[in-house]
Structure formats: C-alpha cells, structure tokens
TrEMBL record:
Gene name tied to this protein: aroQ
Record's keyword terms, sorted: Amino-acid biosynthesis, Aromatic amino acid biosynthesis, Lyase
EC number per UniProt: 4.2.1.10
PROSITE patterns the record matches: DEHYDROQUINASE_II
Catalytic center residues: Y23 (proton acceptor), H105 (proton donor)
Similarity comment: Belongs to the type-II 3-dehydroquinase family.
Catalytic activity reported: 3-dehydroquinate = 3-dehydroshikimate + H2O
Positions that bind substrate: N79, H85, D92, I106, S107, R116
HAMAP family for the chain: AroQ (MF_00169)
Protein name in the entry: 3-dehydroquinate dehydratase
Marked site (Transition state stabilizer) residue numbers: R18
Length: 151
C-alpha cells in the first residue's frame, strides 16, 4: 500500500490551545486522525510527523523523496507553520528531494499579517490549500491522490 506523509512544523503541536479563534479547537491528534481517515477512504496509508526543528523536517523530506522514488509513497502534505515564510532550507530540501508537496495552512495567511503573505514553499509545491481550517488537510490528501495517486 502506498503512503502519504503528513508533516507539521513548529507550534502545530499546540493546536487546540494556541489561538483557538484563529486555528480552531481541534488538536494535532484530531488532525492526524482526520488524515488517517481520509487516507483510508483512498486505500492510502497516512504517516504523521511533527517537529519544531527545521533540520528534522528537512530530514523527513529527504526520506520522503527517497520513498517516492522507490514507489512506496505518493508525496507529502505539509504545514510548515512559520517556516513557510522564512525557510529557504526547506525550499531547497523539497526541490533536492524531488518530493511532491501539497502546502497546507489552516488559516487564510493572505488575510493576516503581511509577513505571512510570502511563501518560500509555494514555488516548489504541487498545490496549496489555504484557509479551510483543519479540513484543509483532508482536501490536500484528496488533491494529492487525485493528482499523483496513480503514478
């Protein structure tokens, strides 16, 4: 069975506690269950990973790129949190690993502070889901499967 990796970056372990008016009341465990349930609908295994450390996220992208090349993985659904707006290293990792990524944001980053309007990841992403709350993760999995699931 092929898989999808759902990756979450810094502070997403605080979902349900951090600014619930903006991010909602769902916890990271709730998001991970939603992702696994969505994967089950497609016959796809979903692996989940969260880290507050940029290097660990980069290492996970490298592993995912190898798994895609081996035909074991379809790609990555990635909410990089604030690293979206700051990390050229994550951009480079996605590009170097040649891993298909769907970029996800719970809130509409374009309706927020101006520093959140720029994404270093968007130019190397297969697609972007923004502003649909945690349901955006399910939409990203659906989109990744629709676009690349048969490859």
């Amino acid at each position: 069975m092929k898989s999808i990796l759902v990756m979450n970056g810094p502070n997403l372990n605080m979902l349900g506690q951090r600014e619930p008016a903006l991010y909602g009341h769902s916890t990271l465990a709730d998001v991970e269950q939603l992702c696994r349930d969505t994967g089950d609908k497609h016959g796809i295994a979903v692996e989940c990973f969260q880290s507050n450390h940029e290097g660990e996220l980069i290492d996970a992208l490298h592993r995912a790129g190898r798994a895609v090349k081996e035909g074991k993985m379809i790609g990555v659904v990635f909410n990089a949190g604030a690293y979206t707006h700051t990390s050229i290293a994550i951009y480079d990792a996605i590009k170097a690993a040649e891993v298909p990524v769907i970029e996800v944001h719970i809130s509409n980053v374009h309706a927020r502070e101006s520093f959140r309007h720029h994404s270093y990841l968007s130019p190397v992403a297969e697609g972007i889901i923004v502003g649909f709350g945690v349901e955006g993760y399910a939409l990203a999995i659906d989109g990744l499967v629709a676009k690349l699931g048969s490859q």
